[in-house]
C-alpha cells in the first residue's frame, strides 16, 4: 500500500514533525522546571507524569503544582498541547483524504482504460464497468 509514502509527503508538506519535536522538548523542559520549582515533586518521573496528565487532559489530581513558575509552565504546556493535538487531527484527515483521492484516481483510471477498449469487452465486463461507474458517482 502507498500509506507510508503518502504519510511522509503529508508530514513533510505540513511541517508537523518540527512542531512535534518542539512539543516534546518543551514537555521535557517543562517537567524539569516543574521538578525544580515544586518541593513535593521529588523525581523527574513524577514531573513527567504530571505533565502527561496535564497534556492528556485527564487531570488525575494525584500531583498538583502550587508555585507560580510551575503554574505558568502548566498553562503554556496545556495551550501548546491543544494546538499540537489539533494539528495532528488535521494531518490525519489530510492523509485520509489523500489516500481516498489516490484510490478514486486509480479506480477511475481502470474504468477509462477499459472504456478505451470498449468494442473488445464482453457483456460481463461492460456490466462490471457500469457498476463501478455507479459506485464512483
Fill in the CATH topology of the domain at 3-96. Answer: Helix Hairpins
Rg calc: 25 Å
In terms of quaternary structure, the protein is single chain
Going by helix content, strand content and strand pairing, the class is: mainly alpha
In the CATH hierarchy, what is the class of the domain at 3-96? Mainly Alpha
Percentage of residues in helical conformation: over 70%
Q: β content, as a range?
A: under 5%
Tell me the number of strands. Answer: 0
Describe what this molecule looks like in 3D:
- The protein is mainly α and 137 residues long.
- It has a domain at 3-96: Helix Hairpins.
- It has 5 helices and no strands.
- It has helices at 3-14, 16-37, 44-55, 68-116, 123-136.
- It is rod-shaped.
Based on the model shown, name its key terms.
137 residues; mainly alpha; Helix Hairpins; 5 helices; 0% strand; rod-shaped
